[in-house]
Amino acid sequence: MPELPDVEGFKRVLSKNVLYKTIARVVVSDARILGKLSARTFASRLQNAKLVAARRHGKHLMANIDHGGWLTLHFGMTGALKFVQSCDDEPPFTRVRLDFASDGCLAYTNKRMIGRVGLVEDAADFIAAEKLGPDALDRRFDFDAFKTAVLGIRRDVKSVLMDQQILAGIGNIFSDEILFQARINPAERIDNLAPSELKRLFLEMREVLKTAIVRGAGSEQLVERMPKGSFLPERKKGGHCPRCRSLLKVFKVGGRTAYCCPQCQGC
Ligand SMILES: [Zn+2]
Fold first, then answer.
1. How far is the CA of 221 from the centre of ligand 1 (A)?
2. Domain ranges of the chain
3. What pLDDT does residue 222 have?
4. Which end of the chain is more exposed for a tag (fewer CB within 10 A), N or C?
5. Which pLDDT score, from 0 to 100, does residue 161 have?
6. In this structure, which topology does domain 143-265 adopt according to CATH?
């Protein structure tokens, strides 16, 4: 499930391979991913245009179109962005493909079709319309801003981390990794955390997200690439704590499945 680090990986795929290249052809294999936007309108806006900048906010990726407006990509549960040198090597479940005049193709894949590809006029307006909170790794989103963002909230800490309107980018998987590294019970109410715990939560949030980016999030082998002591590889049925080897507890928090070490996190 693509979260902030994965989408940052997709942003790098886009930035590295396709900026300032002319889009020669737009192939929409499944128009349902465009929602109400017609495939014809979508294609006509991108045909012969260039993507000139990439921007990520939370789990959303946006690319500025030289003719005006932005291409928006959301990856839902199973989405990804891949660049292939030859369009004959189109990856499975490609829903939208941009073929470049010089070389290569950018493929938006999405097996389960949860997600969206779209066009908007303005990136900032789009972020506001989606009601997204600050990006979890935004430099301006420091500890004071984090404290302010969660002030007065009386919900379990896992749901708060995952609430895109409070802060954008974290989902079910990375919230578990962050809470494990911070040694906090996912079901603990955020307003019950000691100031030192809240600080640790913030610092681990940044550390976990940055580490995942450096280790190549967005690729299918991320789990194998995470450093020793990471929670992700054990986050499965029958998994054990990487620190104390206790059997992990699995339970629902705010309707989502949480994995947690009963010894280290007191859950
Ligand atoms: Zn443990």
1. 24
2. 4-129, 143-265
3. 82
4. N
5. 98
6. Helicase, Ruva Protein; domain 3 (1.10.8)
Residue 15 in tokens:
């930035």
Residues contacting 74, CB < 8 A, separation 6+: 59, 60, 61, 115, 116, 117
Q: What is the pLDDT of residues 62-104, one digit of tens each?
A: 999 999 999 999 999 999 999 999 999 999 999 999 999 999 9
Distance in Å, CA 250 to ligand 1 centroid: 13
Q: How many whole angstroms from 11 Cα to the centroid of ligand 1?
A: 34
Distance 208 CA to ligand 1 centre (A): 17
Q: What does the DSSP assignment read for 80-111?
A: EEEEESSGGGPPTTEEEEEEESSS-EEEEEES
Name the DSSP letter for residue 41. Answer: H
What distance in angstroms lies between residue 260's CA and the mean position of ligand 1's atoms? 8
- Residue 195 alpha carbon to ligand 1 centre in Å: 23
What angle do the packed helices 172-181 and 195-214 form, to 10 degrees? Answer: 120
Provide, rounded to the nearest whole percent, the portion of the chain with pLDDT above 70. 100
Mean pLDDT of the chain: 96
DSSP annotation of 133: -
Q: How far is the CA of 62 from the centre of ligand 1 (A)?
A: 39
The Cα 150–Cα 165 span in angstroms is 11
Instruction: Name the region of 15 (left: φ>0; alpha: ψ -120 to 50; beta: rest).
Output: alpha
Query: What fold, for 4-129?
Result: N-terminal domain of MutM-like DNA repair proteins (3.20.190)
CB 4 within 8 A of CB 210: no
What is the CA(237)–ligand 1 centre distance, in A?
15
